[in-house]
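Hi all, posting the design record for the shared folder.

TITLE: backbone redesign
STEP: 1 of 1
STRUCTURE INPUT:
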């Protein structure tokens, strides 16, 4: 599964990152993950494709 956060900044944070079951996150919003959420998801093996 692919999760595509495309609206709000910091929408994925350490309060909800644990519930994400997607294997890939494609960032389309400007900074949709907090730093802690990024680290948590990376440790779980989630591939994060950043917005550039």
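Okay, here is what came back for every position:
SEQUENCE:
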């Amino acid at each position: 599964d692919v999760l595509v956060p495309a609206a709000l900044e910091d929408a994925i944070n350490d309060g909800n990152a644990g519930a994400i079951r997607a294997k890939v996150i494609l960032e389309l919003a400007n900074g949709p993950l907090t730093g802690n959420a990024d680290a948590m998801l990376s440790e779980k093996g989630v591939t994060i494709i950043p917005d550039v």
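COMMENT: The mean pLDDT is 97.
Let me know if anyone wants the other runs.
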